Structures are given as C-alpha cells and as structure tokens.
Task: inverse folding
C-alpha cells in the first residue's frame, strides 16, 4: 500500500521510544515483580509475565496509534492489552501492507532472574518475509537491526541507526543451543560440540546463552521447535541477514510468512557455517529415523 511508511521510516520513528522502553526495563529489573503467569503449561519461559511486558507494549502501542495508525500490529501481550481493539488489524496483510510485531521482553524468565541477555524485539513483516527487525538488549546497552537485503548492523544505544556498524560473526564458540523441546538432538551433537539445553540447563544463578547468542559469537548453531514471528523468527532474520544459514528442521527453505500458522515459522536450524548446519541437520534426521 503506497501510503504506508517504509520499514526504515518506521524503525527511525520508533527507535527513540524503544530506547526509552529499554531504559525503563533496565531501571526496574531489580525491583520487578511477576504478574500471574500466562497459564501456558510446563514451559516456564513462556509462562513468565511482568509489569515490564505490559508497560512496554502499551508504550509502543500508543506511539504506533498516534503516529502510524494505518499499520497492523500484533504484540505478545495482545490479550492483556487495552489497545488491541484500536488497531486496523492484527494479522498479516497483503504484500506491502506491513504488520508490526513486538515482544516487549524476550526472555522474561532471564529478566526476572537478573540476567542481562533479555531483549526488546520489534519487527516489520510483509506477506512473504520480514522487512526489518530491531533487537535491543537494555542491560547491555546495545542493539542489532536489519533491513531486508541490507545486512545486520550493531551499535550501542547512544548511536542512531546510521551510525551502527555491520555485524560480522566470526570465531563463534563451538557451542550448540537446543531450545525448549529439542533435547532429543543432544546425543548426536555432543560428539563435536558443547550442547546447552534450555529446559535442562537453565539456571537462575549462571547465565546461559539465549537465541541471540548466535549474534554475539556465544554459540555456533541452534535448533528451536518453532520460530515465532515475535522472537525466534525475528532473531533468525537477523542471523540470516548476518550471513548465517537458516532452514527448517529437515533442511528446507523457510516458507513464506503468509503460509505459516499461529504467527510462527516451523522449527528452525540456525548455523554460522555449512559444516555446523550439516551437523545439526544430521542430528535432526537421525532423531527422526530413530
């Protein structure tokens, strides 16, 4: 739709407000109290919810409705939000009719436990693929962003988008991260890598890498059960734009976003090299055969 702002315009407009949200999240982290969880079963990462999630989403909703009311919007806390009903739409549109998504605190469990690798993730989606993603790490005072086909950039929060530098992933640690529900891949991978399983290795005292660890050379590959548009899918786009290999669990190319269900890509393999991707793929295939 010709009347819509460009993805770069959207990011530039929202960035000052996202920095305010980052400062707020960082300021209250040590004081935060968890709200009642989301009732999503045994996955304590998905169940966590805080005042920061609600407040940051409300801030971005107000900015969008006041600045770009024509845009579609889907925030993680849409069921809790007072503003969901005011947006024109909350789902994917036709080509050029962008959907903005937000994970106000990605890694809420990390956040509650005082770790510094939680993020605020905002994305701009087209019918077929992501157009832009920005992922801010408030406690680290840094952020990554990418525009489709232009690579991934990094900078500290004092730098505007134009002042950021291209992200170069090199010499990552030989560590594989397995997301929730992916522990069955571990036996094959431990022959070559240190393997971290989120559901079994998470600690309130010792920080483990998150999905964003692949952007910081903390891990060399990962497997996740699904790539939600608001978090795992968004981070996989940043990794792709930085030169990583991203496929489905069977090695296929990613489907267009419009073909996905429940705001989510299928399970993903993300690797910093062809060799690492092949090892992840072989582990996935062996696990399926057995």
Result:
């Amino acid at each position: 739709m010709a009347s819509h702002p460009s993805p770069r315009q959207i990011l530039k407009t929202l960035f000052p407000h996202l920095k305010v949200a980052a400062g707020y999240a960082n300021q209250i982290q040590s004081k935060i109290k968890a709200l009642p969880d989301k009732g999503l079963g045994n996955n304590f990462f998905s169940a966590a919810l805080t005042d920061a999630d609600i407040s940051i989403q409300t801030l971005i909703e107000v900015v969008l409705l006041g600045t770009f009311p024509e845009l579609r919007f889907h925030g993680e806390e849409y069921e809790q939000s007072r503003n969901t009903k005011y947006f024109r739409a909350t789902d994917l549109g036709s080509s050029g009719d962008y959907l903005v998504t937000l994970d106000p605190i990605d890694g809420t469990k990390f956040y509650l436990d005082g770790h510094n690798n939680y993020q605020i993730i905002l994305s701009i989606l087209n019918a077929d693929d992501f157009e832009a993603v920005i992922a801010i790490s408030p406690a680290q005072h840094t952020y990554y962003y990418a525009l489709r086909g232009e690579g991934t950039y990094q900078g500290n929060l004092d730098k505007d988008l134009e002042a950021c530098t291209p992200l170069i992933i090199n010499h990552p640690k030989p560590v594989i991260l397995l997301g929730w529900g992916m522990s069955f891949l571990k036996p094959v991978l431990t022959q070559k890598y240190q393997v971290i399983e989120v559901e079994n290795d998470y600690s309130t005292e010792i920080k483990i890498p998150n999905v964003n660890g692949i952007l910081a050379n903390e891990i060399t590959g990962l497997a996740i059960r699904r790539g939600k548009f608001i978090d795992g899918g968004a981070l996989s786009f940043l990794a792709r734009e930085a030169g990583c290999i991203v496929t489905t669990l069977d090695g296929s190319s990613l489907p267009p976003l419009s073909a996905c269900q429940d705001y989510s890509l299928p399970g993903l393999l993300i690797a910093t090299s062809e060799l690492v991707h092949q090892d992840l793929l072989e582990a996935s295939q062996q696990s399926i055969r057995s």
